[in-house]
């Protein structure tokens, strides 16, 4: 069985990653893996009870080092690989360039990267309005500012890296879900780089 391709999905909190990732997975037989949600699920199973550093990262929304994160992701990807998905969407990964580079070196090559671009004020409103289960920290304005600042510090380098590899798709996600998803579908249908993932013949 051919291993599923890897699709990375990037964007600031509130840009629509979770919603768009789930729709893409549903429509194209992909597996949607929210990295943050998976870490919280693992925490709920007691995996990190004796690791105070990981617990602190989860509670404060901090970046996990690749040395800790990649084994967790690799295990989940291997579990998913036997279920006949075309691709695995890594929602919220990588959060820094070193994570992405080490992932490709140690786990699997990335096929394409989607970046959802959303103005800060629109994303903040969405972020503050949402109520997500299992959160170990409060989704307040201070957390939003912290996460966006972190994203802005790291993302230029990430985007440049994947742009140079001709793998980056930037999608305007300032509109509602349907508008954003249609923009993504238009890109998928028009760009031959998606063909290997979807068995499309251009």
Tertiary shape? globular
Q: How many distinct helices?
A: 9
- Topology, number of strands: 5
The percentage of residues in β strands lies in 5-15%
User: Helical content, roughly?
Assistant: 40-55%
Strand order of the largest sheet: 2-3-1-4-5
Return the structural class. alpha/beta
Which sequence of SSEs, written as H and E, runs from N to C? EHEHHHEHEHHEHH
Radius of gyration: 16 Å
Alpha carbon gap, first and last residue: 25 Å
User: Which ranges are low-confidence, i.e. pLDDT below 50, for 5 or more consecutive residues?
Assistant: none
Kindly state the mean pLDDT as a whole number? Answer: 87
Q: What profile does the largest beta sheet have?
A: 5 strands, parallel
What do these coordinates show?
The protein is α/β, with parallel strands linked by helices and 202 residues long. It is built from 9 helices and 5 strands, in the order βαβαααβαβααβαα. It has helices at residues 17-28, 35-44, 52-60, 66-81, 97-106, 120-129, 141-164, 177-190, 195-198, and strands spanning 5-10, 30-34, 87-91, 112-117, 168-172. Strands 2-3-1-4-5 form a 5-stranded parallel beta sheet.
Task: Give the SSE map.
Blueprint: E1 5-10, H1 17-28, E2 30-34, H2 35-44, H3 52-60, H4 66-81, E3 87-91, H5 97-106, E4 112-117, H6 120-129, H7 141-164, E5 168-172, H8 177-190, H9 195-198
Parallel strand pairs: 1-3, 1-4, 2-3, 4-5
């Amino acid at each position: 069985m051919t291993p599923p391709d890897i699709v990375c999905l990037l964007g600031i909190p509130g840009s629509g990653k979770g919603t768009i990732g789930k729709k893409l997975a549903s429509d194209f037989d992909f597996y949607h893996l929210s990295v943050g949600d998976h870490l919280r699920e693992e925490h709920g199973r007691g995996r990190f009870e004796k690791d105070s550093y990981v617990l602190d990262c989860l509670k404060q929304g901090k970046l996990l080092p690749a040395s800790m994160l990649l084994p967790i992701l690799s295990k989940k990807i291997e579990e998913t690989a036997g279920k006949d998905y075309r691709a695995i969407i890594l929602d919220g990964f990588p959060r820094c360039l070193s994570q992405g580079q080490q992932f490709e070196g140690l786990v699997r090559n990335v096929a394409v990267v989607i970046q959802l671009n959303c103005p800060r004020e629109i994303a903040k409103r969405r972020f503050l309005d949402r109520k997500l289960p299992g959160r170990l920290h409060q989704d307040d304005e201070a957390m939003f500012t912290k996460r966006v600042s972190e994203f802005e510090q790291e993302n230029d380098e990430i985007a440049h890296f994947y742009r140079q590899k001709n793998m980056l798709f930037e999608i305007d996600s300032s509109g509602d879900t349907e508008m954003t998803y249609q923009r993504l579908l238009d890109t998928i249908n028009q760009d031959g780089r998606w063909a290997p993932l979807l068995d499309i013949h251009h």
